[in-house]
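Q: What structure does this chain adopt?
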Amino acid sequence: MIQVRITYRDETITHIDVTGHSGYEDSGKDIVCAGVSVLTIALINGMIEVLNFPENEVVEKYEPGETRICVPQLTAVDEMERKGKLLVLLQTYLINIRLITETYSDFVNIIEVDETC
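A:
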């Protein structure tokens, strides 16, 4: 099963961890794995290529079966437009990963964790 762990602090996403394999089908034919992978890679690419975050600040781990994304925390007034675009990327990811989870709940699980003190 693929596990997508969304970590929040003060209602803001700080990390996204995607681990495991769906087991839906053989490697190369697994549409569940492909869907989750495409969404996750699109999020990473959007953060790096569109919003110009340095790759080493966004991708903490990227290997088969385990990806860890660190979401930059923007607070400066001059970063508000960039923050808005980042929120759109994150919401798009969440909407679509939830749709995959609803359809393939035996193969993908979302865990949302609030680490607010």
